[in-house]
Amino acid sequence: MSGLHIDSVQLVPMTQEEYAAYERAMGEVIVEAGGIYWRRVRRFFYRPLVAFEPMDKVGLRGPRGARLGGWQYVVQDPGEANSSMSFLMFRNIHEYTLQSRRRRRQVRSAEQIFAVRRIEEPEELISAHPVYVDFQRRTGYKYRVDRLDPYRFSEWAREVFRHPKVIVLGAWKDERIHAVEIIHLVGDTLNLGGFFATTEALRENVGSLVLHAVRTLAARSPNIKQIFAGLRKQGPQASVDNFYLERGCEVVTLPARLHVHPVTGWLLRTFRPDLWRRLLGQLVEDPKPVAPAVAVKPDAEEVP
Fold it and tell me: What is the Cα–Cα distance from 3 to 243, expressed in whole angstroms?
């Protein structure tokens, strides 16, 4: 039976510790410093695990691994800012409706084709390996390319299910999975943790349907304030944001404090001024045409 089958899905919030453990299990480098969990987003460069939460600059210590590179965080006091960070957020989530005739048509047509429900067992997720391979070949996306190997994909799928508060949704057609969405609730924010789908399913608007399912889940949960879809991207991944922005997502820009080792800062300003401007939060146009890629992990590619 096609349509949404998500009435039994319960979103249980993860603690910061649980979220850090999950991200480590997914292969991310997460360290703790000064009572804060930090994510290594590039070698020698870190941001907080929950990057959009404002922090008090007083007494804040960055991770040891950032001493030769840098670290950045959103500040409570705009007067302390020397940069900015932009995030993709769905807000006013309890007022969500399919108001756009075009989006409503996309979702309704996809509902006639796909059944969206929670993936309950690791074996079900493992069966989606061909979907992941299709996604990688279509996009050329380099993040976790090792999962093209069936054994590594199987290991990853089993690890996901060792964290019971992580929700995995699947879109079925003809008794096969054609799309996967991973979500997790941290505090009052629902995170989009990764989406991939077949080329055929994307043409049949499965992306719109799965996002509709996620927003429906959030809208009926009074303890959820917002949906986080990642940092605003530039360069090759910038086109990914359009999928969300065309469906009600907002770009939320917040004041941030950037700490960079003096030598590293000089090298960036001298030899890669485009990267330096990105760290400051300035828009840098990418002159190269980019093929759209809907499915990405929100925190994997936001650092230039």
Answer: 21
Which residues, in sequence order, are CB contacts of 201 under 8 Å at separation 6+? 114, 171, 173, 178, 179
Give the type of residue at 22.
Answer: Y
pLDDT digits 0-9 by tens, 215-261: 999 999 999 999 999 999 876 667 778 999 999 999 999 999 999 99
Eight-class DSSP state of 282: -
Find, among 98, 295, 121, the residue nearest to 206 by Cα. Answer: 295
Strands 176-186, 189-197: pairing is antiparallel
Best CA proximity match to 169, nearest among 222, 206, 130, 135:
206
Q: How far apart are CA 170 and CA 51, in angstroms?
A: 27
Strand partners, 192: 183
Structure tokens at 80: 């302390």
15 Cβ neighbours under 8 A, 6+ residues apart: none
What pTM does this model have? Answer: 0.90
Q: Is the dihedral of CA 139, 143, 149, 152 positive or negative?
A: negative
